Amino acid sequence: MKNFAIYSITVDEHAERYKKFLKNWMGHIDNRDFIRIGVHWRDIDVELLNQKRRNSNFWFNRSRYLSPAEVGCTLSHKLALEDFVVNSTFDWALILEDDVYPRLGFKLGDLVGLKSIIDVGIVHLGGQDGLSPLFSPLTMAKKISGGALILNPLFHRFLYRTCCYFIHKDSARKIISSHNQYNLVADDWSFLIRRSGVDRLYFYNLIAHPVDLFDSLIHVGRHGKC
User: Is the CATH code 3.90.1200 the one for domain 5-222?
Assistant: First the structure.
């Protein structure tokens, strides 16, 4: 029995990808349990889009402006967190983007087990596939239970993607507050954790992300094609 909210971040143009996503999670999560949320950048008011593109943290990606797709991604996650805080009776939420899939051996019970050892915070659930191994967010991480780790704040900078994470409602409120104050890419974890005051950032490598990014709006946007 699930005892946390489950959100899927997707947009209408990803209809075929979403079908594959639901198939990948069949047997782990009932399709009816997903709360589907997503903001496509083309649907954002032009004035708001231009405002949100002014990057509050130049040093994350060496850019003064976010791509339109990055703005859409950030607003999608913010909307999901707002829905969780306002409408859910659960204390925790699982947030999944529409291209991730469970690793071999994944069990939803692993997340239930995490709740017994972590009071608040954010657990990043993997998705680092295909990224450069030069700098690892797992450097100097501390093991707490099973495969779960507490990440060292010095290396939060090297954690990428918001494709899969497990978040407590108190931490969700803090992340929303930071997004209200700053214009950031959704996966600027170091800045978000530092400015929001989220207690801790954990890592548990349960979920995979495709290495091929040919249909990723974020990848396309970051390469100036969006």
Answer: no
